[in-house]
Amino acid sequence: MTCCNADKVLRHIENAAKARYLPIIGPVRGRILADVVRGLKPRRILEVGSLVGYSSILMGRELEGDSEIITIEIDERRAEEARENIRRARIKPRVRVLTGNALTIIRELDGWFDMIFLDAAKHQYLDYLNLVEEKLVRGGVVAADNAGFRSHTMRVYLDYVRNSGRYESRFIPGNGDGIEVSVKL
pLDDT of 53-96, one tens digit each? Predict the structure, then answer.
């Protein structure tokens, strides 16, 4: 039942995204993200950039009820839309949609994370990671969207995860773009 509700809400968001020009991850890169979550089975995920909840639903349908997703959206209207979409999807994990600037909110978060999904201001990806890196468990994953098409905007971030020695990182192409998936060593 959860799967069907989630699938229905995801299709609705995909159709709305075309009409409203919303930059969601979409079904192709969404499958990549879902595969990462399915393989890792994280108990706690931090998502930076909720938009309307599409990625939260994609990740959440791969998780059990004892999992948690904390997602941050700067725009109150979009955050409210994300809350409603997530509620309608009826996914198992607990999802908290926080509203505000991620650079401020991340500093206030307690606890650890098994996974971080970055899909907000590309030029700030390294800033987000720097704030939460010590809360990412060893073997945890950072997935960064738009690492192909927008790689020039996130060059400093990509250089860090690929060359710092702190991550094993690879680019997974999809739909003319891709996701950088980095495992913390």
Answer: 999 999 999 998 899 999 999 999 999 999 999 999 999 999 99
Q: Tell me, what DSSP letter sits at residue 152? A: T
Alpha helices by DSSP H, 21-72: 26-40, 54-60
Backbone angles phi, psi at 134, to 5 degrees: -70, -15
For 42, residues 6+ apart whose C-beta sits below 8 A from its C-beta are 63, 67, 113, 114, 115, 140, 141
Decide: pTM greater than 0.90: yes
Q: Is 39 helix (H, G, I), strand (E, B) or coil?
A: helix
- Residue 136: φ, ψ to 5°: -90, 125
pLDDT tens digits, one per residue of 126-184: 999 999 999 999 999 999 999 998 889 999 999 999 999 999 999 999 888 999 999 99
Helices (H), the chain: 2-20, 26-40, 54-60, 76-89, 102-108, 125-132, 155-163
CATH architecture of the domain formed by 2-184 = 3-Layer(aba) Sandwich (3.40)
